[in-house]
Design goal:
This protein is α+β, with helices and mostly antiparallel strands. It is built from twelve helices and 20 strands. A hairpin with a 2-residue loop joins β13 and β14. The radius of gyration is 20 Å and the shape is globular.
């Protein structure tokens, strides 16, 4: 029997997240195992009077390229993909894998080269999105591999995914509009501030310059589910230490117990208990990879559990995350890199956030009740 929550998700992605309208050129991308959602989105796009284009690529193709491709193939800049990202009005990306660890055996150097090959594509995508020329959203399809990573049954993981997107509510889009309002109040407070500091009993003491940068409200119009506010920190003004709480996953590789020391905006010391070689290779791929491109506060209190999936983990209410690498231009960030890697730090056990020296959040809860709160 077809899960009606899949159709609810498609309707929210098309009608609320990307606001597809008549005549839009809409690229729908995802692997074959997400076909149920692809079909629902396709139908919703047709009903909106837009033009759907499909890109359905098996997971194995990327694995074949990285394992068997020659260097000139791995570093090739795909002109068809570049043309698409320059021409489409809307991108709806669906994520789902048959094996989330399929790239674990690929050398870090080959993955870094593949990342660099997509730099022009990534730059175009970010610039068009910042200019309002490209509306996009990405979402996770609940599948067995991700459920296994989360140490859940598929049924439990489906409930987790749909609950995180508020799709269990009678009017999901209306619920997201309510969240948008509370996050906007937080954004309005943060804009114009000069400095943000994160402190945890686990050893994090990180201070970032944010003066002149724009905080943005992530309310389900891009990543879905959503629930964060973020900005691009001043590139040479990050100081201190961050000890990340959860393993960070990138390109199918898991890195545990990451610790960074920043000086004048740059990672000058890095360590990890697992995957340190891969971590170093990613940080050394270009000049911008050791600089933070994003700092964000997670505000989705419907997400409470770590699942080894950044889409959800970075939104956990009561956390913050920071991304080494490329900035989002709309935030005012100027850093450029072939890398954008989000890493999450938990604040729910004694963590604090200070804004220009004033306490904003403690134990993962905002002091001001006008800002996002659990059970809102």
């Amino acid at each position: 029997m077809r899960d009606p929550r899949i159709d609810n998700l498609a309707d929210v992605l098309v009608g609320y997240s990307t606001e597809v309208k008549r005549g839009d050129l809409v690229l729908i991308s995802g692997p074959p195992l997400t076909s149920a959602l692809i079909t629902s989105i396709y139908r919703a796009v047709i009903h909106a009077g837009a033009h759907p284009v499909l890109s359905v690529v098996p997971d194995e193709c990327k694995e074949i390229m990285l394992n068997e491709g020659q260097e000139h193939q791995i570093t090739y800049e795909d002109p068809v993909a570049q043309f698409q990202i320059e021409e489409i009005d809307v991108l709806i990306a669906i994520w789902g894998q048959t094996n989330t660890k399929s790239l674990t055996g690929v050398s870090p150097e080959r993955q870094a080269k593949a990342s660099q090959a997509r730099k022009k594509y990534l730059d175009t995508y970010l610039k068009r999105a910042a200019a309002g020329e490209l509306r996009w959203v990405g979402t996770q399809f609940p599948c067995n591999a991700s459920a296994q990573d989360a140490e859940m049954s598929l049924s439990a993981y489906e409930d987790f995914v749909f609950r995180a997107g508020l799709l269990d509510r009678e009017k999901p889009a209306e619920a997201w509009r309510h969240i948008s309002e509370s996050q906007q109040r937080l954004v309005d407070y943060l804009n114009g501030k000069k400095e943000i500091r994160f402190v945890t009993p686990q050893g994090t003491d990180l201070t970032l310059g944010i003066e002149g940068r724009q905080w943005l409200n992530c309310d389900g119009h891009e990543n879905f589910p959503d629930g964060e506010v973020f900005t691009g920190p001043i590139e040479d003004a990050t100081q201190g230490i961050v000890n990340y709480s959860f393993p960070a996953v990138h390109g199918g590789r898991e890195v545990d117990d990451i610790s960074f020391t920043f000086k004048d905006g740059k990672v000058v010391e890095e360590s990890a208990s697992k995957g340190e070689e891969f971590l170093k290779a990613m940080l050394d791929q270009d000049a911008g990879a050791r600089i933070l491109g994003e700092i964000a506060i997670g505000t989705n209190y419907s997400i409470t559990d770590y699942t080894k999936n950044t889409l959800f983990d970075e939104k956990i209410g009561g956390t913050f995350h920071a991304a080494v690498g490329s900035s989002y231009p709309e935030s005012g960030g100027k850093n450029q890199s072939g890398l954008h890697w989000d890493m999450v730090c938990d604040l729910r056990e004694g963590g604090q956030i200070f804004i220009d020296g004033e306490l904003l959040s403690e134990n993962g809860r905002f002091i001001d009740e006008r800002f996002p709160q659990p059970n809102a």
